[in-house]
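Narrative progress, year one. The postdoctoral researcher (J.K.) led the effort to move from monomer predictions toward full complexes, under supervision of the PI. The following entry was the first complex the group processed end to end, covering 456 residues in total.
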Amino acid sequence: MVRRRSSSRCDDGLVVPDATVGRLAVYLRALSALGEQGRATTSSEELAAAAGVNPAKLRKDLSYLGTYGTRGVGYDVAVLTDEIARVLGLTTHRAVALIGIGNLGHALADYAGFATRGFHIAALFDAAPVRIGTTVAGLVVRDVRDLGAVVLSERVSIGVIATPADAAQGVCDALVSAGVTSILNFAPVVLAVPSGVDVRKVDLSIELQILSFHEQRKAAGASLEAIG
Amino acid sequence: MVRRRSSSRCDDGLVVPDATVGRLAVYLRALSALGEQGRATTSSEELAAAAGVNPAKLRKDLSYLGTYGTRGVGYDVAVLTDEIARVLGLTTHRAVALIGIGNLGHALADYAGFATRGFHIAALFDAAPVRIGTTVAGLVVRDVRDLGAVVLSERVSIGVIATPADAAQGVCDALVSAGVTSILNFAPVVLAVPSGVDVRKVDLSIELQILSFHEQRKAAGASLEAIG
DNA sequence: AGATGTGAATAGTTTCACAGCA
DNA sequence: TGCTGTGAAACTATTCACATCT
């Protein structure tokens, strides 16, 4: 992941720390759930519990956006939902290109969460002749060699790479050449990109290894207790 | 994700910060690649470049494990690989249970990265009668109602939840009841777990929303430049 | 000479505790 | 009164710069 600063000045001149941006999306989901339940207002305590954070952190996070609560009362669910969606840039519609239609790519193409809130998958790509031309999630899989042209014609603003590791850098370079500056990478490689391009990485085996570390620590603690 | 402390005392009494643990897995992958290329030694500069971090950070991270480099020379690739694998607990074999064999679960079951380095998928579960009994990635999908019994018989130490959001908490509770203390959650919900249970969360739509935020910021910056 | 290992400085994040306002 | 908003304090992480060792 590329990160040169740990906070970002957004549209309105607001400065929002990175750690906060990551949690805003979580708050947004919790707010949507409250809204669906018919709740009109909520408190920092309730919303924080739903998001799995401490209430003080929630209030601090929201304070970076401005003043949207009412002291003694709480937050208006609809107002806060709209404000967070706006700050996250979800009021602008964004076209996503998904490259690599193997098992994972297939799952991502079908994943409902992708289609919600301001995103839509505009095109699917693969390099394998056997996949090109097939229909997945209602879209025809295109030849990855057409990536540049389609990115321009469909105004793709985010690229999602779900290719094998050895193809990822080539795809990334093609995306960057076509002007894409936001990439979500599922391939287990560190992508090299010019400055100004944001890469976020999701790596399943790394998540497992982190769990393994903690699991081992817990086992060691249990042994020590048994001995002592 | 549950985190009560931001660093963890491991097996040897070493204290390793959380941020470092997450990067050790990245270094391990870079080291494996160097090893496959036949490199016997490397430097903090080379390894840091391969891992996408700054060399000082790499050296600081490795310093938490002990002294494994040689001043003026660098690091022995094989020695450092083994040491990181040991600290991450990858020398112990861990059984993983995967619950929810929809598109994503199917992709995860087939994902090679899951099977490497100390992990193996011991069992697959689903709640849908149409899926129970089918074979996926060489394993028969079992009824999620048998989860508790199988976790015990197969000595499952990590649970991976790839169910729809509304099923996730129930599955989580069943895992915890059966004694599982490490969970990787792909469902878009915040799981409630007792203390002592680690949950890590992978959320695709949150990653997209973070990219959206930065994309918007870049667009705003470009507009300001055009005006100014 | 050359690269590691690390104390010190800097930067970023979380939590506390309470002032301030409805 | 009750809950938000926020300075200040505490904690964590990153980076620098150089002493240290081969």
